[in-house]
Amino acid sequence: MGFERSDSAVALLGMEGFVLLAAAEVDGELHQLVETQAAVVGCAGCGTRALSKGRRRTKVRDLPSGGRPVVVVWAKRIWRCPDADCDVKTWSEASPLIDPRASMTERARAEACRRVGQDNHAVAQVGRSLGVGWAAVMAAVRDYGRPLVEDPGRIGAVGGLGLDETAFLRANARRHTVFVTGFVDIIAGPAARHRGRSQRQGGETWLAGRSESWLAGVHPVAIDPHRGYANGVAERLAHATLVVDPFHAIRLANMAIDDVRRRVQNDTLGHRGRKGDPLYGIRRLLLRANERLSDHARSRLEAGLAAGDPLDEVLDAWLAKEALRHSYAADTMVEAARRFDAFVREAKSSSVPELHRLAKTMSRWRTEILAHHRAGASNGPTEAVNHLIKKVLRVAHGFRNLDNYRLRLLLHCGVKWQTPPATRIRGRSPRLVA
Ligand SMILES: [Zn+2]
What we know:
Helix content: 40-55%
Radius of gyration: 29 Å
Distance between the termini: 28 Å
Largest sheet: 5 strands, mixed
Bound molecules: zinc ion
Shape: elongated
Oligomer: single chain
């Protein structure tokens, strides 16, 4: 490569510890020859001052400059330990800014993740602008995005509701202990044996036997959107906040998944689901929370959908359920409302009739569903989720990777991004060079 030593030899690249030696344009790309400033290095094994054994050039992609793709050519030093008894013979220098196996600098990888996640750019488009392939960008999205998405502090304090289904159910068990011992199960229990008017009367009769002071202590009241106000809750407990808790809401979404699955099963195979049928085999996995799926379970789910769901109707029902869960996982009421409205819009515009019904039922309970979030007051993510759900739903036809779907969804609307763009460096390898 015909680099010319430039006068700006010490020009800062913005990469700590590196200096720019020369720059040249090669086929419309900017190639920058760099080296580290490390002149004196001790052996990692014995601490003896290392001897230089020459250089090897490594090429990685960096952030584009002036619209041109940038290639960083790192003249990596090879070091040798002069001590013949030392186990460490030779090594090449390392930097947390450039992973030895990556095709991009770490700041380019962080920016690729931000553009896919926060800006919602297509992975292929980001790849093109950086001069790397789809897989390299997606790997960067995973490496930088997962820690953000899995950060336990991301969800905030919303009544103990987690994205994890175990915690989710546990939280609901706790709510039941609190409200239900107080209320829902005690009424719904005996009342559920009756139908119609008697169910309502059952609840009212039971409530009528409670003292005013006992009733005043009931707050809030968790109700089941499926049965509605059947228990005469509204009349007797006008002071209490009515809440549709996640357990009941998501159970309704799960019932919609079951309905779609049975219908599609019948449409495609002409009989009820049985052992060996692709959709029947994944009936329980469909109801499991996305993040609770092991890799094996996820592959089974994807294979079952690929084999038994030709029009993506079951997939759409599954995505609707996850979108509803996503709304409950929001850490502010405003964000929850945005996500909930996106869920309703998406379900209403779907070609799956069962999802229309679900959307209709759920939107009737919007106030009570959002009441679940009343406690939250922290700063929520500011990005809107609705267009992303639409976009990712479309993309989902191209790739059925549910994990990528979730990651992108959460990166776009479930995490707080630093502005200016994160330049956080993964400090994985020991720093041989300052
Ligand atoms: Zn040594």
